[in-house]
Every structure is written in C-alpha cells, then in structure tokens.
Amino acid sequence: MHPSRLELTHRLSEALDVYASPNVSLSAPEVAEEHILLTVHDQDYLDQVKAVSEDPGLQAVDFGLGTEDDPVFAGMYEAAARIVGGSVIAADAIMDQSTVRAVNFAGGMHHAKRNKASGFCIFNDAAAAIHRMLERGAKRVCYIDVDAHHGDGTESIFWDDERVLTISIHESGLSLFPGTGFANEIGGPRAEGSAVNIALPAMTGDAGWMRAFHAVVPQLVRAFDPEIIVSQHGCDAHRDDEMTNLKLSVDAQRQVALDIAQLADDVCDGRWLATGGGGYNVTAVVPRTWTHLTAIAAGKPVPLRTYVPEQFRRYVLETYGRAMPYLMGDDAQLWWRNWEVGYDPADPVDRTIIATRKEVFPLYGLDPWFD
User: Which regions span the lipid bilayer (predicted)?
Assistant: First the structure.
C-alpha cells in the first residue's frame, strides 16, 4: 500500500499523455470533513482514529487499529480522510454534471467498515462517494468490485439498502482474506438481492474470471438499472501479485475496465466513478493497470502493445531497483467461453457461477440457467 503505487501510476499516465486531452482535468483532493465520514462511519470509531493518529503510541485493536494489517501512524486520520475527499469530489463532479466519468486510483478502500479498520483500509471512500450520490438525489447506484479480495466493507455498509447493488467478484474466502463473500450472502431482509458475490476458486485465470464476470455482472446491472456505476479496480488478482492466488493478466483487468465503461454507457448515460484498491506488485503491475483504467475513463484507451516509455522504465530501475516490462500488456490470450454456449457442472468456476445465479437471478426476474 506504499504511496509509490500512486506516484508511479501518475507518472506513467503523464508519460503516456493520458492527461493531455482537453476533456481531462485534475482535482486536488481535500481532507474530507467529519460530517462526510459520519455518513458511513460511527462517531466512536472516528474518535479512535483521531486519537491514534495524534498519538501513535496508542492502539485501539478492538477498532482494528494497531494490528498487523492496520498499524497506526502519525497523520493516519488526515491521510485516510484525504482519500475519501478524492472520491467525494469525484462523486460531486458527476452529480454536478461537470463530468461524466471520474477516477480516484488512490481510493477503493473496500474493507473499512462502519466501526472498524481492516485489510489496510481505514475509511471507506467508495461508500462515502455512493452515499453522497444518494444524498444528492441518485435513486440507484451499482458498485462493482473486481479486487481479488471480497469487498466486505462496502457490502456491509449497504447490506440492507435496496438503493445500492454491490457486486464483488473475488477469490473464495475458503483460501483468502477476509473469508467472506459466498454466493448465499445476498443482502439484508429489506434488500435481498442487493449483495451479489462471485467467489472464484484459487488459481482461476483470465478465461474463468472473464467468463464469471460476463455470466453475472452485465445481466444484473441491466436488471437493476442504476443511474451511476461506482467500481473498485484492485489489481491484486494479477498472476505476479504474491498476496493472492488468482492468475490474471493486465490484459484481462484492462478488458473488464472497458466492459464496465461500456456498461456505464449502455445503462447510466456514461456516469461512472472508478477507484483503485489492492495491488502489491508495486512497479510492474499497479502502474500499468491503473494507467489503463485512467486512460479508459478519459476515453483514450492505451493499446496493449504500447511500449512502456523508456524514461519511465529507467526511473523505476534507478529509483526502485526493479526492471519494468517493456509493454503495457502481458501478451495474454483473452479467449473465454461465453455462458450462452453452455456450462460444465464439473468445472469449479462454472459451479461458482451457477451458485451465484441461483441465489440472485430469480430476485430480478432472471432465469438462473438461461438468461
């Protein structure tokens, strides 16, 4: 989670002229005010974050502060609240109609719950952005989370809110933190079907991941008919990320970003807020994946065969001692089997898909076998 992830993404985006188009503007995020944080977090939790931020000698383990995942540090409150500020600025820009698409690749802190830090996440910026949209008049918002880890914090905040559809495609909790996010977790009693979970088996690669995404996500998004899509693009599902057991390429992650952009165009008149998230191969994977994401949002996707600029590769080698790939893609084969051609009950990915579709599709008037 080192800030170098953000610095390198920004630097690579600049090197590839992603920001150069006249339709792109950059906004400096401010520290989110307390009343914004209180829309998705409890007062006693904020008080604890402030306390350990001012005195890192303190700990509040009951609130997830001072753990191995979330060690305390001076300025923690302001740093976490600034990430929220970025996503809320993006939400406001969309609601003001001053932009259609926005990206905060510093965001995506999806494990943070109302009263607890978790999984490197202190405040939940995506949830705060969604709440802001609802507060300003949005009737339905869809949240799509493609991080390798279950988006448990965001899901829990909107667990019983029928206005928000949360969809998370992730490695199964049987093999990965946080151990949740199974097909039968479908939302609270007043909002059944508002939570959707696709829990993929470890070692799933591009073909299985994209098959699962396209067998569930577009159908439910269209049935829910949101006004805005908010997405979380943790890139820790990459095959070179040591934190997870999925085997994706940059190419597949870029393609799903394109697919989400197309869904936003088809269903939401283009309204789309994208965030970052996890991603622990700091030099080779994160900057390429999130530069692709930013370029897609800007309407000028970077081709996969584009060379990583020489000055950027040299900077990474000299500053971090690591060699960068030469290309913006992994030269992967993105062939995948469309769900409409049938399913294999012996395939663990297909069993995952069926489990999710059987739980949720009937709640939207969809047939779990054929739609």
Answer: none
